[in-house]
Amino acid sequence: MTERVVIVGGGVAGVSTAASLRSGGFDGEVTLVDLGEFPYDRPPLSKDFLAGAKDIKQIALQPSQWYDDQRIRLINRTAVSALRPREAAVELADGHLLPADRVVLATGGGAARPPIPGIDSERVHVLRTADDADRLRPSLVPGARLLVVGAGLIGAEVASTAVRLGCRVDLVDPVAVPLAGALGPELGAWLHGLHAAHGVTTVQASVESFEERRTGIEATLTTSAAPRLYDAVVLGVGMVPCTELAQAAGLEVDRGIVVDERRTTSHPAVLAVGDPARVRRGGVLQPRTEHWEAARHDGARAAATLLGTAPPEETVSWFWTDRHARHVEAVGHMDAATHTVVRGSFDGPSCAVFGLRDGLVVAAASVDDPSAVRAARRMIDRRLPVDAARLADTSVKPRDLLRG
Q1: Half-sphere exposure (CA, 13 Å, Cβ side) for 10?
Q2: For the whole model, what pTM was predicted?
Q3: Is residue 65 part of a domain?
């Protein structure tokens, strides 16, 4: 019988697990252990929080009173040093043992730091935590020379924030059209072109090395004849799942903590959710999903497992991002489409791209048109046949597309 649940990690997956346990009727002890002062939301770190428009309390996932109201014990500023499932306990960094019938690992991930010479310089930043943002913020002053390495979601958002703050920004990526697999090549290229329109210099290249100089840090790029000098560098080249606790406990780990569809690890008393979890479905390991909504759904799924109730239905993956005052949403897997349909104009106030395969929508992405993506999500989940001409017709409202 499960009476004591310990959740390790206070990101959206961990908080979602705790909230879903209580909303599902769990009356036992719920303890959430987190390294920070309190659990906070991470998407604002590259936008409003980095710009100084919001402070840490304004990006809290829940107000402090919520934990008391929900009878969730929050142990903050504390690390977990070991899992002891055989002893039904979790060991904290100070040696204290927390009783735990079941443990949920919501340990998240750390920023990837590729083996580039000179990458350990204090001028080279990453952005995964509020502390990272606090360290980077003083460098983002008008006229500062900033290099952003990686033009994916984090890199594009940081570049957008920095140029708005008056920095001179170079954005470097080895791929000609970043995010083409998620957004499609047409929309991906147009969005990447927004950087130049807002004063960001984009360079298709890789970084070979960094070297400290008295007046900054030099970066040698594969396409440049001479090094370029910057005041600061931000790496946005992906994340590495935090699997150390799982490995030390002898759980199955394979580029993530391996779980089944109910988010149970190779030890039945331990579950894993969010960024580090890697689902085995039908005997096949799936790619990890590193998006906010996926982490929230993971928490709900883990709670259902602990409660012994039916898990929520799976739904197609969805994410959003913001850059240069444009809001982007995407759903599904655009690289699975055989052809695309464009709705609206890229240069208009809003637009959307639908990815089709065998007469079905398999993906969609939009700029300032979230209703199109919401409709596409329902089309994908319900496997509704579609008429490409109606998809492209902006006079047809997105909700009407669901009626055939």
Answers
A1: 27
A2: 0.94
A3: yes
Look at strands 232-235 and 257-259 and give their pairing.
Answer: unpaired
Amino acid at 119: I
Residue 147 CA to residue 261 CA, distance in Å, equals 40
Q: Which structural domain, as residue segments, surrounds residue 378?
A: 325-403
Distance of CA 391 to the CA centre of its chain: 29
Do residues 161 and 46 lie in contact, with contact meaning Cβ atoms separated by under 8 Å?
yes
Percent of the chain with pLDDT over 90: 92
- The answer to whether residue 404 scores a pLDDT higher than 80 is no
The reply to whether 369 and 393 lie within a common domain is yes
The rounded distance, in Å, linking the Cα atoms of 387 and 389 is 5
Name the nearest CA neighbour of 338 among 320, 315, 321, 361. Answer: 361
Domain of residue 60, CATH code: 3.50.50.60
124 and 199, same domain (yes or no): yes
Residue 348: CB atoms within 10 A of its CB come to 11
Among 182, 209, 235, identify where a domain stops.
235
| pLDDT tens profile 17-67 | 999 999 999 999 999 999 999 999 999 999 999 999 999 999 999 999 999
Residue percentage of the chain with pLDDT more than 70: 100
Among candidates 227, 43, 54, which has minimal Cα distance to 137?
54
Task: Please tell me whether residues 39 and 84 are part of one structural domain.
Answer: yes
Residues 274 and 253 placed together within one structural domain of the fold: yes
Burial status of residue 10 (CB atoms within 10 A of its CB: 0-12, 13-18, 19 or more) = buried
